């Protein structure tokens, strides 16, 4: 069996559960799709090697994901392409490893609800990459042991399994990665801005003691440009939008009432440290009517 590992709590919990049952017959596959957070790949490999004795393969698939995403602006189309490419990578890994029949995934209940996979009556909010965005033809059979759990319940299971704190407490990250936070087409420039700004948000929230009090906090970027001043010169750059929310299971969420001085620090660091950004805005809508991720 192979298990798609993203570094997040859902897939890590599934990996540890399955490893307890079948030991070395499990190989985890971590796909670096080029859409990950800053230093994510290094951190995942380090955490995994330090805490678990599970076979882990890292697949560098940055170029192929970014190539397939080139020019695609529609959010659902981006999700379909990403879900499809993940399965291609897993199928290839299964052929390489041999005798693999199953793919384990960290799908949880809200992924299925939002992808409208729980009933014919549910309406599709977003095709989660691991549910609604999967290709129709798949070589591997899916195993989803936590498919009926909400995130807070997964956290309880993870704690029982002694998963490390940095995995249990890490903010959730969507399967389509930064593509869910880049409005419009994914470009290298928007990826750089989104990734660097997201890292600043995380850092400042941790320093101010707000990271553990929020469900998710990140930066997003689109194609709209706004005027700024750099020295005495006019500049024209990207608008970065910060989103921080409080939630219990992500089905509903409130925007986090972060202190103004923290927002000011984040804004000043983003405009000073990241080239090509002139404005920073804070998202003040809750879910519903908004979703947590913009795409
Ligand atoms: P939204 O943006 O729909 O997200 O309010 C609800 C929660 O789900 C995460 N999310 C995903 N997780 N695959 C995942 O595994 C996905 O395709 C996906 N899309 C959104 C999101 O980060 C939030 O915590």
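Sequence proposed for the structure above (295 residues):
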């Amino acid at each position: 069996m192979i298990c798609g590992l993203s570094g997040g709590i859902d897939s890590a919990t599934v990996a540890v559960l399955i490893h307890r049952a079948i030991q070395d017959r499990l190989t985890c596959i971590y796909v670096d799709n080029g859409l990950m957070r800053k230093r994510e790949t290094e951190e995942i490999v380090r955490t995994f090697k330090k805490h678990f004795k599970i076979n882990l393969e890292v697949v560098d698939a940055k170029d192929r994901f970014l190539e397939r995403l080139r020019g695609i602006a529609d959010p659902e189309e981006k999700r379909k392409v990403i879900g499809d490419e993940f399965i291609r990578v897993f199928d290839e890994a299964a052929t390489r490893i041999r005798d693999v029949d199953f793919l384990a995934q960290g799908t949880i209940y809200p992924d299925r609800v939002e992808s409208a996979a729980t009933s014919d009556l549910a309406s599709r909010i977003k095709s989660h990459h691991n549910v609604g965005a999967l290709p129709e033809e798949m070589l591997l059979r899916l195993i989803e042991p936590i498919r009926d759990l909400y995130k807070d319940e997964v956290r309880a299971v993870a704690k029982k399994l002694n998963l490390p704190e940095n995995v249990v407490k890490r903010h959730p990250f969507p399967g389509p990665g930064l593509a869910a936070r880049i409005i419009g087409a994914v470009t290298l420039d928007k990826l750089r801005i989104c990734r660097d700004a997201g890292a600043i948000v995380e850092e400042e929230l941790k320093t101010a003691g707000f990271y553990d009090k929020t469900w998710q906090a990140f930066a997003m970027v689109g194609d709209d440009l706004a005027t700024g001043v750099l020295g005495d010169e006019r500049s024209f750059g990207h608008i970065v939008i910060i989103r921080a929310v409080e939630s219990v299971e992500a089905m509903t969420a409130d925007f986090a009432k972060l202190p103004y001085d923290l927002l000011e620090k984040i804004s000043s660091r983003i405009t000073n440290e990241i080239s090509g950004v002139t404005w920073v805005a804070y998202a003040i809508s809750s879910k519903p009517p908004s979703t947590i991720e913009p795409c």
